[in-house]
Structures are given as C-alpha cells and as structure tokens.
Design goal:
By secondary structure, the protein is mainly beta. The protein has a single domain, classed as Porin (Beta Barrel). It is 10% helix and 57% strand. The chain has 1 helix and 8 strands. Strands 1-2-3-4-5-6-7-8 form an 8-stranded antiparallel β-barrel. The protein is flat and about 90 Å long.
Length: 192
C-alpha cells in the first residue's frame, strides 16, 4: 500500500509540474508597422493567386498565379516585375496554359492607412502568350488592393481590378475583365 501511495503522489507531482509548464500561444494576426516596410531601398517579394473559378455550365476551370518582386524607389512607391502564369481546363478539349511577364508600378496611399495595413494601387503592362498559339500579345492591368501586415515583414493582400490580355489568339478568345486575387508579400529591408 505504501508503494501504491508513493507512486500516486509521484504521478500527481508530475501532473502538477506538467500543468505549470503549459504554454499557450496565439497566432499573430497583425503587427503595428507604420511606414517601415515601404521605405525607400526596401524590397518586396511574394505573389498572388487569382481568378480561381469553375463554370458548371461549360465544365471549365481557371486559375492564375502571379509571383512578383519589387524595389521601393522612394517611400511608398515600388517598381518591379511579375510573372503571369495561368491554366484553363475545358471538358473534352486541350488545356490552355497562359504565360507572360509584366513590369509593374505600385503606390501605397498615405490616406486611409492604419498602423497595420495600407491601401495600394498597382498598374502593369507587359506581354503574354498561350500554349495553343505561338503569338504573344499585350497584357495590361489596373488594380487596387489592401495589404494587412501580420508581422513586421509579411503582409496578406487582397487585390481587385481590370486585367486585359488577348494571349489566346488562335481560339479567338482572350482574357479580359474584372478579377480578384489573394496573396502575400514579404518586405525585406534594404541597405541604408
């Protein structure tokens, strides 16, 4: 009986010790960054995924990926380039792969900003092509968005606007219209 009582006391001590060391962490959902990530000389790397959709009527699925990199030439103004990669599948037909590259300009608006987020506008112009054709065409985009900083250097973004491309020239059907994308950016400090 003494051994059983000793064993129970020992297990109880371990249980109390384990409970005392329990650490609960809560994921960080925002960071007070001010203007620091969008200062002159900083870099931004990231991308977005957009125009995800499935049409039940036409059995069609579309998705676009846009990796991008930029450099802040002055506070709040970045220039850079983004790749445009897309896939469209059609039931009973060949898949269409879209590709392109577009230099962009992004401006973070000072008005309406908070300590954890910034509104921005982005314009791009470049070239685009598609897998069923060998021709390339003009690609344009004018978008607005919001960057919400979850850490000092990482922001989640939502962006919407108008994008135009006649990349699928052989089938006579290009991509243009309004679109929404979700993404993230990593802001890297530059040398000062």
């Amino acid at each position: 009986m003494k051994k059983f009582t000793f064993l129970m006391a020992l297990l109880g001590g371990f249980a109390l010790n384990a409970e005392a060391q329990k650490v609960e962490t809560v994921p960080q959902t925002s960071a007070n960054v001010g203007l620091e990530p969008i200062k002159q000389g900083n870099w931004m790397l990231g991308g977005s995924i957009g125009n995800i959709g499935y049409s039940f009527e036409g059995d069609q699925f579309r998705i676009n990926l846009n990796p991008r990199a930029g450099y802040f030439i002055t506070d709040g103004l970045a220039i850079g380039a983004q790749a445009n990669l897309g896939l469209a599948t059609f039931k009973g037909e060949d898949n269409v792969y879209n590709y392109g590259i577009s230099p962009f300009v992004r401006y973070y608006f000072p008005g309406g900003a908070s300590a954890t987020g910034r509104f921005f506008g982005q314009g791009d112009i470049g070239i685009a092509g598609s897998s069923p054709g060998s021709d390339v065409s003009l690609a344009l985009g004018a978008n607005v968005g919001y960057a919400h900083f979850i850490t000092q250097t990482v922001a989640l973004e939502v962006m919407g606007g108008y994008n135009y491309s006649k990349a699928n020239l052989n089938s006579g059907n290009g991509q243009s219209g309004l679109g929404i994308s979700l993404g993230f950016q990593i802001y890297l400090p530059g040398q000062r």
